Amino acid sequence: MPPQGGIAVYGGGVFHRRVACVCCVVCACLFFPSLGAMAGFGSESLLRSLWTQGELAGNPADHVVTRPYANPADLSPPARTGPLIQLDPTSEGLRGVIRRVRIANDAKVLALTFDLCERASNRTGYRTEIVNCLREKGVAATFFAGGKWMRSHPKQTMQLMADPLFELGNHSWTHANLALTDGTETRDQVLWTQAQYELLREELARRAQARGLEAEMAAVPMSMSVFRLPYGRNAPETLQRLAAMGLPVVQWDVLGEAGAGSARNMALRAAGEVRSGSIVLMHANAVPRHTHDIVPLFVDELLHRGWRFVTVSDLLAMGKPETVQDGYFERPGDKRQFDTGYPGKGTLHPDPQAAARTGK
Asked: For the residues 122-151, what does the mean pLDDT come to?
């Protein structure tokens, strides 16, 4: 993890944080005594003091996913639409779509990542078994959370934020396809999500202060500093816009939920594709049905083989990112199918009633 009270160094570039204006500094300092410093990814004392073991373990109600269009689509913005903290533009070495990181001596280290997606047309869930497994085994991971998902799941977001094993990254507000959005739409999708993170961090800080744990908040990052593309899609201008907002784009080189057969077969297939510096894609929003069965098998297999799990930011600090300009799942161009079929530039599910009316 980045050193306490310091700055994060990624692939030879230095990642600073700055605040947009003096008035924001004053406001933010009410909650962030060490403004400007990035320190770790959370605090065990904070996590265990604010929630009981049972609250952290969760329950089956957390898994519930509502049917698309069961309620009107939620297009509302967060309570604050602009983040207080502005990140410096990303360095040149981080401006592509990062698929993995080349690490000296091919060290057996990888980043396990989980998307927490939520479109405007429904509410997704939170697969508690996945998080419980990672905590039990002491496995680090990065969760790329949608802003609307964080707003729908404030307790779970703050728990992930407070946990020293985990890092939170930005996955856009309502899972927009950024290959289709214009500059204003892209900024809203990204910056609304940054602002929602800050709002929940402020709430976490209030709870910490009430317990006399203000000092522990120094370990909770002030802002999310990595980004994942919804659908894995981008246009050339997408990368320029995200670089200007200071967010490296992190994709993957291993699909952790792909293939067919039993959960064990899927876990072993994914484990067999891991290379030094790999980034593995999975989901924890209760949409892929078998991820919670795959994760413990996948983790145990890699631990048995001597692999070490780190967060994405830690992985970026270990070597040189391997980048492409147009992201893909397994083959270049295989994600363009997502440019059609999802209304609202990817932020809505296909309307099942409309499909029934048209027979499509």
From this structure: 98
pLDDT of 106 > 60? The answer is: yes
**C-alpha gyration radius of the chain:** 19
What gap in Å lies between CA 198 and CA 212, rounded to an integer?
20
Q: Largest Cα–Cα distance of the chain, in whole Å?
A: 60
Contacts (Cβ under 8 Å, ≥6 apart) of 95: 239, 243, 248, 323
Intra-chain end-to-end CA distance of the chain, in Å: 50
What is the per-residue DSSP string for 252-298?
A: -SEETT-S-S-HHHHHHHHHHH--TTBEEEEE-SS-STTHHHHHHHH
Domains of the chain: 8-64+89-358 (3.20.20.370)
Are the CB atoms for 313 and 145 separated by under 8 Å?
no
Angle at 269 between CA 268 and CA 271, to 5 degrees: 60
Mean of the per-residue pLDDT values of the chain: 88
| Residue 33: pLDDT over 50 | no
